[in-house]
């Protein structure tokens, strides 16, 4: 990995990590490698809020120094075939939900976003090859382009250690796939348990793929010409 690194013991192993802090969450993690994912991008966050990034290079908005919603870029990733998964612990902010309604590829129940009230971990994994774990939520003050006097004080680490990636992704996937829902003591207050959400998605998909019954055409009656 480029940049300064530290050694960390994880499950009796030593791995190499890079420390990221404050603004580096935006410049190095989000813009540096997360939003350039080619295969998959998994995000876990306790809070989910709208955040803005510089407009795409070459656009008129970029020439004017404008910022756009990160959801526009996430939509572009999904359109290019990137598997996008976002786990969040609470109801997204109102501005986030308003922008989400404009992004039809993202605004499909249970496809890209799934909520778990117990979720508090902050994780970003791109292409299964690099992971961020730390304090920052996926919000403007955490990963956005806010000024130094407005952003949160955040601290985290980035690593490309294969075993670390396997463990973190396995943990993420277990929650994402609803395997933690069955024995959850908060199930009764959960707005929509993920395992039920998955079943609804399967049912909707099955209905969408079911063959459409074609009504039979009425048999034509052969009329004999009237005898004269």
Describe, in plain words, how this protein is organized in 3D.
26% of the residues lie in helices and 21% in strands. The protein is an alpha+beta fold and 228 residues long. The chain has a single domain (19-209), classed as Endonuclease, Chain A, CATH 3.30.870. Strands 1-2-10-9-8-3-6-7 form an eight-stranded mixed β-sheet, sandwiched between helices.
Short description:
The chain is an alpha+beta fold and about 230 residues long. The protein has helices spanning about 25-30, 60-65, 70-80, 95-100, 160-175, 195-210, and strands at about 5-10, 15-20, 40-45, 50-55, 65-70, 85-90, 115, 125, 130-135, 155-160.
Mean pLDDT: 89
**How many helical elements?**
6
Structural class: alpha+beta
Q: Write down the domain tally.
A: 1
Approximate strand percentage: 15-25%
Keywords:
Endonuclease, Chain A; 6 helices; 228 residues; single chain; 8-stranded mixed sheet; alpha+beta; 21% strand
Q: Which helices and strands appear, and what pairs or packs with what?
A:
Blueprint: E1 6-10, E2 13-21, H1 24-30, E3 40-45, E4 52-54, H2 60-63, E5 67-69, H3 70-79, E6 83-88, H4 94-100, E7 113-115, E8 123-126, E9 130-134, E10 155-159, H5 162-176, H6 194-209
Parallel strand pairs: 3-6, 6-7
Antiparallel strand pairs: 1-2, 2-10, 3-8, 4-5, 8-9, 9-10
């Amino acid at each position: 990995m480029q940049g300064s690194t530290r050694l960390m013991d994880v499950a009796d192993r030593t791995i190499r990590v890079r420390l990221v802090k404050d603004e580096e969450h935006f410049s190095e993690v989000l813009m540096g490698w997360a939003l350039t994912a080619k295969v998959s991008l998994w995000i876990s966050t306790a809070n989910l809020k709208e955040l803005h990034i510089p407009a795409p290079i070459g656009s008129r908005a970029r020439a004017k120094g404008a910022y756009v919603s990160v959801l526009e870029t996430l939509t572009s990733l999904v359109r290019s075939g990137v598997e996008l998964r976002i786990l969040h612990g609470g109801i997204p902010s109102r501005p986030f939900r308003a922008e989400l309604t404009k992004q039809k590829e993202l605004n499909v129940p249970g496809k890209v976003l799934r909520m778990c009230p117990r979720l508090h971990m902050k994780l970003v994994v791109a292409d299964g090859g690099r992971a961020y774990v730390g304090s920052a939520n996926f919000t403007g003050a955490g990963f956005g382009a806010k000024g130094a006097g407005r952003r949160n004080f955040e601290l985290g680490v980035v690593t490309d250690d294969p075993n670390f990636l396997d463990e973190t992704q396995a943990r993420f996937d277990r929650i994402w796939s609803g395997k933690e829902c069955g024995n959850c003591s908060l199930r009764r207050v959960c707005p929509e348990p993920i395992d039920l959400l998955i079943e609804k998605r399967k049912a909707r998909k099955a209905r969408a793929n079911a063959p459409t019954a074609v009504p039979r055409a009425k048999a034509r009656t052969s009329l004999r010409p009237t005898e004269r």
